[in-house]
Fold these 2 entries.
Entry 1:
Amino acid sequence: MEQGANDSATGWQQACHECDLLLGNSSAPPGGKLVCPRCAALIHRNPARSIHYTAALSISGLLLFIPAATLPMLNFSIIAFGSENTLLNGVFSLFGAGYIWLASLVLFCSVIAPFFRFLLLAFISLGCLWGALDRPVARAVRWYQHIKEWAMLDVYMLGVLVALIKMQSLGRMVVESGLYCFVGLMVLSNLTLLSFDQQSVWRRMARRRAATQAAGNGESSGAAS
Ligand SMILES: [Zn+2]
């Protein structure tokens, strides 16, 4: 479905990011998408039940984060010597070997940023249902914009796959449950990118503000008459 929807509650306008055409109807209906009438660029895709799906996916991601970060991912053994590697002890090994900057970067991109990304999405999707949380939710959406670029689970996964292939000839490599959890985490992370529609959050807040103002104006005109 490709059509525009009038966002009359907010009166917003939006410029096409490709040709700068000013569009009065700047939001797509749930499950639909809005394209520019001049250059056919995609202006807005509005996944159905975006906020509910994002809440479910981000909470699942937070829960899966615990086994993904703490359970062994790979078990590498040569003759009688073996070692189990988790996401966190890989980072600590880098710290121990003196690679402070590299360890900090891996820790931030593979653990801290993805965790906070899920946490912010859970807070945004649940918090935007309550009017009292509008201000912190608005701040969280801005933080989300900064942190989402730094969450690089797929790059870490690529590193694990390279290690898996390269080191197989040196010893016995066994995939452990932590790696399956990590793959699940990566899938959830990509699904949140598809489900989360930032405009749905802003529109929900703007409609609530417009309704509050309308109710306030109605009360004041009622009191005047
Ligand atoms: Zn355009």
Entry 2:
Amino acid sequence: MSKINYVRTTFITQITCLAALLFIPLTLTAAVPNKENDILLTQSQLDEYNAEGLLVIKGFFTKEEVKQVSHCADRLQKEAETLSLQQTGKVMHKGTQFVIDRNGGKLQIHRIVWVGAAEPQLLKLARQPKLLAPVAQILGSDQADQLINQLHYKLPRDGVKFDWHQDVKNRRTFDPQWEDLNHKGSFVQTIIAIDPNTVENGTIYYVPKSHMRGDLFLDRITEPAELKRIAELDKAVPLVLNSGDVVFMHPYLVHGSEPNESSSPRKIFINGFSYPGANKQPYPGEGSAQRISLK
Ligand SMILES: O=C(O)CCC(=O)C(=O)O
């Protein structure tokens, strides 16, 4: 190589190395998510939650996380099938409560409660900073009591449905001394879609902004026409979700769901957190209703 060529090659190599040194940290910064910004809700998301009573974040759980939940859910479904041949109703097994029936010989899973006892991965997935940080923002607290770690199945045409309600009704049922200590409902339900949730497969319907009207004590209303009027059910809209989407739901939001009339299952993974001290009663499942740090 001539001297001129040698000098030119060396110069080009040096420039290339320098560019690479400058470029690598830039690309690394871009590729590694800024954790803080990625997990915190923006002010406009918080405003939407407060205005509508619910906030949907698309693609919140990765495909891999959805797959992990699905595997656990499949195992629990098999356990439910086996258990239901011996016993129905509320069945405690491995620290998890199976609420199951047989309808015309077919398994009906109403809910599987505190799933993390039998499948610890489900508690781990629920307690990720990306879920807990928004919960802390919504509750206005660095701590919470995790009351719910639950799977809802709707198997094709199994008839499982959820009557119109506000989640506060369940909080009052478990603890008659339930108190709204933060004056914002003191509870937030998070719903992660495992399967796509559609009108056909029995997705949740909700009444936008109904949370603004406080506890409507819908459980005390026996007349369907009265329920329709008080809960303003003619305003209800479906919550159509893709796998991995998450919903943060206010405890006063009116919602319910119809049976799955499709040929594919509809599963959701729900986790509910209450403001410390609002609930004072135990919940079913080994390790449930414990105080956890949200930070
Ligand atoms: O699973 C459903 O369709 C309804 C769930 C629900 O209403 C609830 O968790 O409060």
